[in-house]
């Protein structure tokens, strides 16, 4: 289900992708796949954010963040923080955005991720607005 969700998301068929991700979530919960659940919640958050349903996206990202912090999935944690920072910035909540982007940057720098550069640019932009 998860892979089909990715397929439909990439084709731009967002509602179908959301339905498949929700089915994937049910399966992951049933079998106890905590890592899969965190990743699916994260991907659902992206879809809702791109649809403009920011409150739903934030709720999904927060669920994913709670799981990734608990299980030590720092890559997904950093990406989730990055998205939360982006959404906070869009809403003009610059202090909140910084509180998400700063730890995202620290994690990505520690992982030597090329994404650290983009997060750093986001953080600089937000700090200039706050």
UniProtKB/TrEMBL annotation:
Transmembrane segments: none annotated. InterPro entries: TPR-like_helical_dom_sf (IPR011990), TPR_rpt (IPR019734). Pfam families: TPR_12. Keywords: Repeat, TPR repeat. It comes from the Bacteria. TPR repeats lie at residues 38-71, 78-111. PANTHER family: NEPHROCYSTIN-3, TETRATRICOPEPTIDE REPEAT PROTEIN (AFU_ORTHOLOGUE AFUA_6G03870). This is Uncharacterized protein. It comes from Nostoc punctiforme NIES-2108.
């Amino acid at each position: 289900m998860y892979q089909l969700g990715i397929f439909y998301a990439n084709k731009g068929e967002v509602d179908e992708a959301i339905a498949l991700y929700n089915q994937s979530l049910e399966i992951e919960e049933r079998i106890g796949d905590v890592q899969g659940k965190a990743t699916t919640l994260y991907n659902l958050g992206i879809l809702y954010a791109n649809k403009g349903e920011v409150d739903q996206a934030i709720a999904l990202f927060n669920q994913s963040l709670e799981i990734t912090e608990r299980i030590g999935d720092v890559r997904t944690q950093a990406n989730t923080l990055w998205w939360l920072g982006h959404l906070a910035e869009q809403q003009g909540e610059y202090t909140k955005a910084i509180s998400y982007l700063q730890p995202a940057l620290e994690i990505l720098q520690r992982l030597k991720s090329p994404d650290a550069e983009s997060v750093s640019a986001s953080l600089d932009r937000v700090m200039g607005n706050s």
